[in-house]
Design goal:
Blueprint lengths: L28 H15 L6 E5 L14 E4 L5 H11 L4 E7 H7 L1 H10 L4 E6 L35 H8 L3 E6 L3 H13 L4 E6 L12 H4 L1 E2 L8 H8 L6 E7 L16 H4 L6
Parallel strand pairs: 1-2, 1-3, 3-4, 4-6, 5-6, 7-8
Antiparallel strand pairs: 5-8
Helix pairs in contact: 1-6, 3-4, 4-5, 5-8
Length: about 280
């Protein structure tokens, strides 16, 4: 954190740190950063009561650009870090930021179990369907016929990972897709996700125009989903059967009980801990 602010008069600018983003010009993550600051300002959250946790990747730089507490963790490990933080400090608003490689490949198993546990976190994944930080390899969400990378000159030949399908099947309590081309709409969805109890997953279509220049067309192709959000998982599943990954809006808002582990408060003299290491 760089400075204290009065949440009553907060503006999005107040939630930005003095660090300047180093993303490529045109990266969708600029817009996502803007949306996060707008959401925090709208909710008038005190920066010291917000923590943003990330893993590794272009999008995982976001904690450094925010005037909140942040933790830049290991590749794929943002969700277990955030889970531990939220369990230890349930009073905090905890956001998790990452990308498709960090969240769905090395972090894929953590994603499944974070959905299943339903701890009150908001997971924001900026999906550009490529590993942009390491020179453009195919990611879990890359189309099977995408052949631009030297590592996959004939395409991956593997079906892509479908984040919303997995999130619904694993038990996420709030699921939405937004486009970075609409920062105001993204901010509104983030406010809804943060306020919704339990594990909220916001899938952001965030183009990487360096390695996927055709993603500029997403701005023209994304469109509101043809049906309203539902609290019925079976209805949400049926909608996903016709989803082309370009529908935006809230898919599902569930009512599962949020996981709140109960702990007994104990006081231990640090010197007593040494006894356990004595031979």
């Amino acid at each position: 954190m760089n400075k204290a602010i009065s949440s009553a008069a907060a503006t999005p600018k107040d939630y930005k740190s003095s660090n300047k983003p180093v993303w490529c010009p045109g990266c969708g993550d600029f817009s996502v950063l803007s949306a996060i600051t707008k959401a925090l300002a709208h909710m008038k959250l005190e920066p010291e009561n917000v923590a943003v946790v990330s893993g590794i990747g272009c999008s995982s730089r976001i904690p450094a650009y925010l005037n909140t507490y942040g933790f830049h963790g290991l590749h794929g490990r943002a969700l277990p870090l955030a889970t531990g933080l939220k369990v230890a400090r349930p009073d905090l608003t905890v956001l998790v930021a990452g990308g498709d490689g960090d969240g769905f490949s090395i972090g894929g198993n953590h994603f499944l179990h974070a959905c299943r546990r339903n701890i009150d976190l908001t997971y924001i994944v900026m999906d550009n369907q490529v590993y942009g930080m390491t020179k453009g390899q195919a990611s879990p969400t890359t189309a099977p016929d995408w052949a631009r990378s030297k590592l996959t000159p004939h395409g991956t030949g593997i079906n892509p990972f479908y984040p919303l399908v997995i999130a619904l099947g694993a038990g996420a309590n709030f699921i939405a897709r937004v486009s970075s081309h609409d920062p105001n709409g993204t901010a509104r969805t983030l406010v809804e996700a943060i306020r919704h109890p339990g594990f909220s997953f916001v899938h952001v279509l965030s183009p990487c125009i360096t390695y996927q220049p055709e993603q500029r067309e997403w701005k023209k192709l994304v469109r509101p989903a043809p049906v309203e959000a539902t609290s019925d998982a079976s209805q949400a599943a049926r909608r996903l059967m016709t989803d082309d990954n370009l529908y935006i809006g809230v898919l599902y808002h569930g009512n599962r009980r949020t996981y709140h582990p109960q702990f007994e408060t104990t006081a231990v003299d640090p010197s007593q801990l040494e006894d356990g290491f004595l031979v």
